[in-house]
């Protein structure tokens, strides 16, 4: 597998997860491995919405599940939260298999440690902005005043100050999803699930909210699972992306890896329109440091596109610094320019 | 064409005109050849009769007299229930209509007056103003003043008290059943089937068993009304809960809601707009039923109409009828406004200050009514009345237009109605059942055909075949009349957007009127008899014909019309080849609705002396015989379900033909 392994402590781990729909979905577990090809299953009118998904998500990582409609990405997300019961497999949160949890502990897990943002917002029309944001806390039995005080904080965080007493019907789509985001964070969850949160919004609003998610993630790093069909969105937000095709994960990798080393033709076609400079990082192009050197400093983590103005300025090689500001290498302007020019 | 149409794939032949001709020819042949058939196949043989009506009679009587659970007589339970139900009715009547009265006869002393009519009217107008606007507030004021000044207030409040209690009861029960049905998917089809039958059984059939169980009086009427108004609430609840988006339910699970929290905090609030539409239907159905139930001792406006009709005092009847209209329109508009506010998210319309104002509006005139009794009950001496005017108008019409009216009536009776009735009655039952089943099979497959045959046989074996043909004759003619007027008018209106709103308003108003109101003008002009019944049923059933005529034309895909225009079609060609075929499925559903409305009116029309199932039910009611009453009622339901099955399959087939999925 060309998949990139997780580089942080593992928070969520999925092993051999299947979700099968059809008349005899219950009998699926008894099927031998050889009988699990799409063709063999189609003979028995079984549809594998998620086929043998396995991956690990690191603590604080933004893991994007991406694919076209019908590829099974939303089903996979719902398997992770057990909104949909997987047909087979193990899903571990901090080593605990949630598929073995009873109803009570599962509800407790969802209440305290998970938050979810929905594609069509799923706001309650009879509650105000504050009432919606406070909803998860109220369901836990917190009294209204305390819940609303917390909700007020979150309304401020997502930029809804002054609109606390409006009803959802009085808000624009973008504002409604801000409420959805705030609500998903009221309980300060460790695990943040976003199911195509911005696909019902127009492009300008979508960009705003993507920036909002990036900002929230910077302020408070959460383990985030983000489903989208928008490659641009995936590249902007993801630490790693899992690309799904017909229920199967075909590749897991950083945006850079997907563009530079696509595992299949499908992935290649998918990422063909992405300008390499947007995903390739300085660290991939630099040459190791040779003693002391001069030149303008650039961050090793930056993408080539981000430092484009400095690349096109005249001068010698650029000095590459790591996260702690130590020089780790040199970036040749010529090779950076080539990357910048390719794929345009 | 390479494309195979779905109909052809299912193996159903496409030559439908040929089939229609065959059926027509078959019917004609049967009529001619009927005398040749063995008598058993012409008239229902006694051996085939099932004494169902006797069994029901016996069962009901047993239930009412002898049934007991562990020494506790069933009838005691029902009587106790009736007494319990009596209590809130009386409380509301004290509050709204009568006040607290001590003693009787000449010693009668009113200790506490009822809420003042002025107060109730003003408070309701304030509510109307807040939830809708100035228009409805004015309408409410006018309606209130009409009821008070014309001396109808006490009757109207008696009716309103029953309506309020029944609505609350039907709401609670309907919600409970609907929630159960929604939760257990296995139960839903069963509930739907029962509810479908319940909606088609005529009103009077509900009254009978309740009379037997709960005794003659307001609480029997209350139970009958609640049962009658239940199906739309159950239906609305199931639909409303089903309309809750799956994501919203996922939210409830993700926030760890308990079942109760999910229901009360998520599902019901989200479903509220649709539930409010259900509330509107329940209120209107309740009002209709309460008016009818006046006959079994609930009193109120319906009783006023009936009493006036018996005295042949059309003027007073008309006046009370207009009182019903006033009440109906205000109730309808108020609940509709509430539903609309819910669905468009208008909120915070009613503040705490409004509550205080409303309270003051109620209290001040009521308090003043100690000093000024006219504020409690408008004095009889000062009552306005338009009855003499209406009576004079009727006399005037009868004096000056008697001959032409009578000529129309006689002509219709002799040349259209009677021959048609006789022809239907002469149709051998065996052949009629076979034809119906055949038609069902062709339109909807063997299941529909089998179901239709079973329901037709039910009518045969219960011994109501002949009255049933009478019902079919009256319904068919009334539907034909309603369609002949309504559909063309609807189609005509659909092309004139400026007319849409006034026509919609007219239709809304027509459909809010309780059925009894429709009888009045017909009887005023044409006296008792089948012709008056026909007019009343037709005018009651015309609203859906118009509505679906408009809707059908509105559903025509505009691209097809544009394509026709670009092919140089004339207006008529476009209408015949493009618009009409595309509208056909909707138009057929409109026919279905028209038939259902006509059937529900049938029993009311029995009041003016028809000879069919409705009359059987009505007679059974007046004689207190639950067996025949219920059985004949079930036969009406069978006719309705047969018509429904045939027309719905026809509509579905037409929709498939048009290549559209028709919900």
From TrEMBL, chain A:
Superkingdom of this protein's organism: Bacteria
InterPro entries associated with the record: AAA+_ATPase, ABC_osmolyte_uptake_ATP-bind, ABC_transporter-like_ATP-bd, ABC_transporter-like_CS, P-loop_NTPase
Ranges for domain ABC transporter: 35-271
Xref: SUPFAM superfamilies: P-loop containing nucleoside triphosphate hydrolases
GO molecular function: ATP binding
Keywords: ATP-binding, Nucleotide-binding
Identification of the protein by name: Glycine betaine/L-proline ABC transporter ATP-binding protein
Organism expressing this protein natively: Tabrizicola soli
Automatic annotation (TrEMBL), chain B:
Bilayer topology: Multi-pass membrane protein
Gene3D superfamilies: MetI-like
Regions crossing the membrane: 18-41, 111-129, 136-154, 160-181, 193-214, 282-303, 356-378, 423-441, 448-466, 472-493, 587-609, 629-647
Keywords: Cell membrane, Membrane, Transmembrane, Transmembrane helix, Transport
Pfam family, one: BPD_transp_1
Subcellular location: Cell membrane
Domain named ABC transmembrane type-1: residues: 152-335, 468-647
Entry keyword Hydrolase: no
Family the UniProt entry places it in: Belongs to the binding-protein-dependent transport system permease family.
Protein name: ABC transporter permease
Provenance organism: Tabrizicola soli
């Amino acid at each position: 597998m060309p998949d990139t392994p997780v580089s942080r402590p593992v928070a969520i781990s999925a092993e051999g997860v299947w979700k099968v729909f059809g008349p005899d979905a219950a009998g699926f577990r008894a099927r031998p491995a050889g009988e699990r090809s799409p063709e063999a299953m189609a003979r028995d009118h079984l549809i594998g919405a998620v086929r043998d998904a396995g991956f690990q998500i690191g603590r604080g990582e933004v893991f994007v599940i991406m694919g076209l409609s019908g590829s099974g990405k939303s089903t996979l997300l719902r398997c992770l939260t057990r909104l949909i019961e997987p047909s087979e497999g193990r899903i571990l949160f901090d080593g605990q298999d949630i598929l073995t949890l009873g109803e009570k502990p599962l509800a407790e897990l969802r209440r305290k440690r998970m938050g979810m943002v929905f594609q069509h917002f799923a706001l309650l029309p009879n509650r105000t902005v504050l009432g919606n944001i406070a909803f998860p806390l109220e369901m836990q039995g917190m009294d209204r005043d305390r819940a609303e005080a917390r909700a007020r904080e979150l309304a401020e965080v997502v930029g809804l100050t002054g609109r606390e007493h409006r009803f959802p019907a009085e808000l624009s789509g973008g504002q409604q999803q801000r409420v959805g985001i705030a609500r998903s964070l009221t309980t300060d969850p460790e695990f943040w699930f976003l199911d195509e949160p911005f696909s019902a919004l127009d492009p300008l609003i979508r960009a705003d909210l993507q920036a909002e998610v990036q900002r929230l993630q910077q302020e408070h790093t959460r383990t985030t699972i983000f489903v989208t069909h928008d490659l641009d969105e995936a590249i902007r937000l993801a630490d790693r992306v899992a690309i799904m095709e017909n229920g199967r994960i075909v590749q897991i990798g950083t945006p850079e890896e997907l563009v530079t080393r696509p595992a299949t033709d499908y992935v290649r076609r998918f990422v063909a329109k992405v300008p390499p400079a947007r995903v390739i990082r300085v660290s991939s192009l630099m040459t190791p440091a040779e003693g002391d050197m001069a030149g303008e400093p650039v961050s090793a983590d930056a993408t080539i596109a981000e430092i484009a103005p400095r690349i096109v300025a005249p001068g010698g090689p650029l000095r590459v610094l790591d996260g702690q500001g130590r020089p780790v290498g040199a970036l040749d302007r010529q090779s950076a320019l080539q990357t910048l020019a390719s794929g345009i | 064409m390479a494309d195979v149409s779905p109909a052809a794939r299912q193996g159903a032949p496409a030559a439908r005109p040929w089939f229609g001709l065959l059926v027509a020819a078959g019917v004609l042949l049967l009529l001619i050849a009927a005398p040749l058939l063995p008598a058993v196949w012409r008239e229902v043989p006694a051996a085939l009769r099932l004494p169902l009506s006797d069994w029901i009679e016996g069962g009901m009587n047993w239930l009412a007299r002898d049934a007991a659970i562990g020494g506790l007589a069933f009838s005691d339970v029902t009587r106790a229930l009736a007494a319990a139900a009596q209590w809130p009715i009386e409380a509301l009547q004290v509050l709204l209509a009568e006040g607290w009265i001590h003693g009787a006869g000449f010693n009668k002393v009113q200790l506490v007056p009822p809420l003042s009519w002025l107060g109730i009217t003003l408070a309701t107008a304030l509510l109307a103003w807040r939830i809708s606007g100035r228009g409805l507030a004015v309408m409410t004021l006018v309606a209130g003043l009409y009821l008070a000044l014309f001396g109808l207030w006490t009757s109207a409040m008696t009716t309103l008290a029953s309506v309020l209690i029944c609505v609350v009861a039907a709401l609670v029960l309907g919600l409970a059943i609907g929630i159960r049905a929604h939760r257990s998917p296995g139960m839903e089809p069963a509930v739907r089937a029962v509810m479908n039958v319940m909606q088609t059984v005529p009103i009077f059939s509900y009254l009978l068993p309740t009379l037997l169980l709960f005794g003659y009086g307001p609480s029997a009427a209350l139970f009958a009304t609640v049962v009658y108004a239940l199906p739309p609430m159950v239906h609305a609840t199931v639909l409303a809960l089903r309309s809750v988006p799956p994501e919203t339910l996922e939210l409830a699970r993700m926030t760890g809601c308990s079942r109760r929290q999910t229901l009360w905090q998520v599902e019901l609030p989200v479903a509220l707009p649709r539930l409010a539409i259900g509330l509107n239907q329940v209120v209107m159905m309740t009002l209709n039923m309460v008016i009818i139930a006046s006959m079994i001792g609930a009193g109120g406006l319906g009783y006023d109409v009936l009493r006036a009709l018996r005295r042949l005092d059309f003027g007073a009847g008309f006046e009370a009828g207009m009182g019903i209209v006033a009440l109906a329109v205000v109730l309808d508009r108020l609940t509709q406004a509430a539903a609309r506010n819910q669905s468009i998210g208008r909120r915070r319309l009613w503040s705490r200050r409004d509550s205080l104002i409303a309270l003051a509006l109620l209290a001040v005139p009521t308090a003043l009514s100690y000093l000024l009794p006219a504020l409690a009950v408008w004095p009889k001496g000062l009552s306005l009345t338009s009855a003499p005017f209406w009576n004079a108008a009727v006399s005037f019409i009868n004096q000056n237009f008697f001959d032409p009216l009578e000529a129309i009536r006689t002509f219709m009776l002799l040349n259209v109605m009677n021959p048609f009735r006789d022809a239907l009655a002469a149709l051998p039952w065996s052949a009629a059942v076979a034809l119906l089943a055949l038609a069902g099979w062709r339109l909807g497959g063997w299941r529909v055909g089998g179901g239709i045959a079973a329901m037709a046989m039910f009518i045969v074996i219960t011994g109501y075949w002949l009255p049933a043909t009478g019902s079919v004759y009256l319904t068919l003619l009334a539907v034909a009349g309603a369609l002949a007027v309504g559909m063309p008018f609807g189609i005509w209106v659909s092309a004139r957007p400026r007319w849409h709103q006034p026509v919609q308003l007219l239709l809304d108003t027509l459909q809010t009127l309780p059925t009894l109101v429709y009888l009045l003008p017909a009887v005023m002009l044409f006296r008792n008899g089948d012709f008056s019944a026909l007019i009343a049923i037709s005018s009651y059933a015309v609203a859906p014909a118009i509505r679906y005529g408009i809707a059908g034309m509105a559903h025509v895909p505009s691209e097809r019309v544009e394509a026709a225009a670009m092919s140089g079609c004339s207006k008529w060609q476009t209408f015949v080849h493009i618009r009409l075929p595309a509208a056909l499925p909707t138009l057929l559903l409109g026919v279905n609705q028209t038939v259902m409305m006509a059937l529900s009116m049938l029993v009311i029309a029995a009041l003016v002396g028809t000879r069919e199932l409705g009359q059987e039910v009505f007679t059974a009611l007046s004689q207190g015989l639950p067996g025949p009453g219920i059985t004949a009622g079930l036969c009406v339901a069978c006719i309705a379900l047969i018509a429904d099955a045939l027309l719905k399959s026809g509509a579905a087939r037409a929709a498939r033909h048009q290549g559209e999925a028709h919900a």
